[in-house]
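Record type: monomer structure entry
Structure origin: computed from sequence
Chain ID: A
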Amino acid sequence: MPRKPVESMTTSSLNAALSFVIDQKEFTDHSEAAQKFGIGKAYLSRLMSGEKDNPSDEVLKRMGIKREVVVTYTAKA
């Protein structure tokens, strides 16, 4: 059975989105943001540092971030 490809966000795009959301919501610190998002502070830190790069769609939804996948096909050489 073929394996399903794993989609992952780039570290820079996820970091930019998280930084924007956290700034816009004016959280006092990352602990408050993690609590509002329903995730652990350590997990938020790992997402922001790029150590983790594939949060679930449910976590992204709670953060106010939407995953968009772009597929580009190129001609065979």
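Annotation 1: The chain has four helices and no strands.
Annotation 2: Residues 11-63 form a domain with the 434 Repressor (Amino-terminal Domain) fold (CATH 1.10.260.40).
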